[in-house]
Automatic annotation (TrEMBL):
Keywords, in A-Z order: Transferase
Transferase listed as a keyword: yes
Entry keyword annotation includes Isomerase: no
GO MF, one annotated term: transferase activity
Name of protein: Glycosyl transferase family 2
Organism: Flavobacterium suncheonense GH29-5 = DSM 17707
InterPro entries (UniProt xref): Glyco_trans_2-like, Nucleotide-diphossugar_trans
Top-level division of the source organism's lineage: Bacteria
Length: 301
């Protein structure tokens, strides 16, 4: 019936597994919960307790694979027809989470995305940027998602046929953070795989600090540049790629590089403040990409 795949890194995923097991047992379905730890150094003892739970399995990678390759490895272990990919730092919104997916599986089902929400309570000031980004850019209402099924979808809280994941693995070229999901979803779109959207969100308890999120954003932009250079993504596949290509065509990329370097510290000051601007985050990402493309000078933080 269902293989639940949870890639994790330095996070205590035991509470999530415990809740999922409780729901799956109540449904009396055939299931397995597979957790694969991507060479963590934290929460090893807590996560090893997963192996004491029936139908639940925890393994630790001997080296870091990256998120996409970790999911690829998980799906090779999965034994059931459908797989459900989750994030380690998320929890079901209610006790009907698995039941809501199960009742939407039909013989023609290929992919189902349940959506994501964020806690209503603001986090600590040094964690506001990631929370605000999630609330504004990732927590999208069902009716909006239905209009653009491939635009508002992530590769977690995602249920799909195992054979689709097997035939369309995540790119093994991506070892660092970012955009492996875009490559994967691009392949599904090209093959006209149908994505069904339902209202069955996970609550994403991402507690990254502002600086960690900014550093991960920079890593993601470097990954995007690599993917575009390798022709795994086109400029039209992402909003930032489209804007970057347009700026280059108009010859404005040099101006943005200059402005990025000149106002870099001021932008960072805003992004780490108690009222971070997502517009400035967009400009930061674009300026960072422009500077990677043809750096004017070294940038220091």
């Amino acid at each position: 019936m269902l293989s639940i795949l949870i890639p994790t890194y330095n996070y205590n995923v035991y509470p999530l597994v415990e809740e999922l097991k409780k729901q799956a047992d109540a449904l009396q379905i055939m299931y397995e919960i597979l957790v694969q730890d991507d060479h963590s150094t934290l929460f090893l003892k807590e996560n090893s307790e997963i192996n004491t739970l029936v139908n639940c399995y925890y393994t630790l990678n001997t080296k870091n694979l990256g998120r996409g390759n970790n999911i690829n490895a998980l799906q090779l272990k999965a034994k059931f027809e459908y797989v459900l990919i989750l994030e380690a730092d998320a929890l079901p919104k209610d006790g009907n989470y698995l039941a809501n997916f199960i009742k939407n599986i039909f013989p023609t089902t290929e992919v189902i995305f349940g959506g994501v929400v964020y806690p209503e309570t603001k986090p600590q000031p040094n964690q506001l940027l990631r929370w605000k980004y999630g609330c504004k850019r990732e927590s999208i209402a069902l009716q909006t998602r239905l209009k653009k099924p491939f635009h508002f979808v992530f590769t977690w809280n995602l249920l799909l046929k195992k054979e689709i994941l097997n035939q369309n693995p995540f790119p093994n070229s991506v070892r660092e953070y970012g955009y492996e999901d875009v490559v994967f979803l691009k392949k599904l779109k090209e093959k006209k795989v149908h994505i069904q959207h339902i209202d069955n969100p996970l609550i994403h308890y991402n507690q990254e600090s502002n600086l960690v999120f900014i550093n991960k954003t920079e890593t993601a932009i470097r990954t995007l540049k690599q993917l575009m250079e390798n022709k795994e993504l086109d400029s039209d596949d992402t909003r930032i790629g489209k804007t970057f290509f347009l700026l280059k065509q108009l010859g404005f990329d040099t101006i943005l590089r200059f402005l990025f370097l000149k106002f870099h510290n001021r932008i960072l000051s805003n992004l780490t403040s108690t009222n971070p601007s997502l517009l400035l985050l967009d400009l930061y990402k674009l300026g960072y990409l422009c500077n990677l493309d043809n750096p004017l000078q070294s940038k220091k933080k």
